[in-house]
Amino acid sequence: MGNIRQDILSLGVTDEEREAARQLAGRCMRETGTSEEAVQRLRNGDTSNADSNTKCFTQCFFQGAGFVDADGNVQEDHLVEKLSTQYDRSKAEEIVQRCKNNSGPSPCERSFILFECYVANRASLM
User: Fold this and answer.
1) Alpha carbons 123 and 68: distance in angstroms, whole number
2) Taking all residues of the chain, what is their mean pLDDT, rounded to a whole number?
3) Residue range 47-92, pLDDT digits in tens
């Protein structure tokens, strides 16, 4: 499968969790009408020109993964736990604290703001 990039859309420790993430992404693509190209841009950290379908894909995926609730509110403990499987726990806690205030007009916007914050700050996790 080659080099798997560690990003918030593929966080998982086991192949089973990665497969569950792929299935969740597929379901969210169908539900929101998001293109595979748009999802690939997200995986690459490109948040420019994201349309409402792409933002709602982020909400669907993050809610399905337990990162946010149905209203797009960050589920801090779960997100820290997931990030700390890949990164130092103190750094995971720091980025969640930095990104948890994702206020926006809708759940889709709030989840997308969380993703943008993660993309902008993920270098600090290394």
Assistant:
1) 22
2) 87
3) 999 999 999 999 999 999 999 999 999 999 999 998 888 888 999 9
Contacts of 82 (CB under 8 A, 6+ apart): 11, 65, 66, 67
Sign of CA dihedral 53, 59, 65, 67: positive
Give CA separation, 113 vs 23, 50, 108, in Å.
23, 11, 9
Q: Pick from 52, 3, 64: which is nearest to 28 by CA?
A: 64
Location of structure tokens 């990162």: 67
Q: How many residues does the chain have?
A: 126
| Residue type, position 72, single letter | G
Dist CA 67 CA 59 (whole Å): 9
Amino acid code (one letter) for 40: Q
Residue 88 CA: distances (Å) to CA of 82, 94, 116, 118, 122: 11, 10, 21, 15, 12
